[in-house]
Amino acid sequence: MNAARIAAIRCFAVRLPFDHGAPAPRFAGTPRTTLDSVWMRVELDDGLAGWGEAYAPDPEALASLVRSRVAPLALGQDPLDEQLCERLERVLHNAGRSGPVLHALSGLDIALWDLRGKRAGLPVSELLGGRRREQVSAYASLLQYYGDVGPLERQLHAALEAGFTQVKLHERDAASVEATRRAIGVGVPMMVDTNCAWLPAEAEAPVRAMKAFSPLWIEEPLWPPEDLASLGALGRATGVPMAAGENAASLHELLQMAHGGSADWLQPSAIKCGGLSALRRVAAECAAHGRVRLSPQTAFFGPGFLATLHLMATLPEPTAIERLFCGLATVPYAQAVPLEQGTFTLPRGSGLGAEPDASLLNAPL
Ligand SMILES: [Mg+2]
């Protein structure tokens, strides 16, 4: 019997400066010099605290929404109630069906899983059905080099030297894909993320040009990303496996995608789509239908990454987790969740199994 209630939600802007061996890439129209998200600490009235993470290109805006909309509804609630976030999503639907509202609830959901694990004295992966493995391999997800193959090749060699055995590019030209295949050799799986590069009528030729270099998947080739019919048609026309899902605006959309017919690889983002609860449901739906493989998007480093790692340790079929390949001054959870030879070892502690490095946290927003 546990009577503890949610007493506080605090948001922290975590902005990680990075070095990827090239000038700052653009992100949402401006140069990007830090990798940002909001880490959320959810505190109970008995002193226990859990950590979540929310997608937040603008941390102050996310924190403002948490203060004005989410916290007033969540404070006083039972952290063990697994329906809480879904109920809040329903109550909050007039404040926005997707975007920051869902991102904030994603962070809350992840923190509640951390709390449930800590309360039970079990790793989150045990609450999700139990670990099938203690290690999860990662793929090196390179940042964007805009077709500049010099720094791209240097980063590819660095990734292989670090022990990664799979790589992903964020390029849009076949010459970069060709250079990558040449640099990594024929046996190394390579994925290509184009970040919604083309309109449906434009996409077939560039996708066919990349096909010659055997990508494992091409990710988000189409704008808008919710045009699932065109995505399915592109995959069928070219014979290239399609990956998508990080921009899905709801769990419902992801569950539809899990039925097949659009993406071959489904990439829910735990810090966007409703947290670990949503990720778990998408994983179950993929397994039930057996037509779409799950490869969660994890272009982030905080509690959302840990939560995804726990889920992936429970999946029947191992798949690699995404790891942005760049230098960080401080690598979150480097001690508790070591990355060696391109493979993460899961922490054994309760909850998410690792606490944030205090040096990453400034005053709450
Ligand atoms: Mg992507």
UniProtKB/TrEMBL annotation:
The keyword Lyase applies. Keywords: Lyase. InterPro entries: DgoD-like, Enolase-like_C_sf, Enolase-like_N, Enolase_C-like, Mandel_Rmase/mucon_lact_enz_CS, Mandelate_racemase_C, Mandelate_racemase_N_dom. SMART domains: MR_MLE (SM00922). Residues 149-241 form the Mandelate racemase/muconate lactonizing enzyme C-terminal domain. PROSITE patterns: MR_MLE_1 (PS00908). It comes from the Bacteria. One of its GO terms (biological process) is amino acid catabolic process. Pfam families: MR_MLE_C, MR_MLE_N. Signal peptide: none annotated. GO terms for molecular function: lyase activity. PANTHER family: D-GALACTONATE DEHYDRATASE, D-GALACTONATE DEHYDRATASE-RELATED. This is L-alanine-DL-glutamate epimerase-like enolase superfamily enzyme. It comes from Pseudacidovorax intermedius.
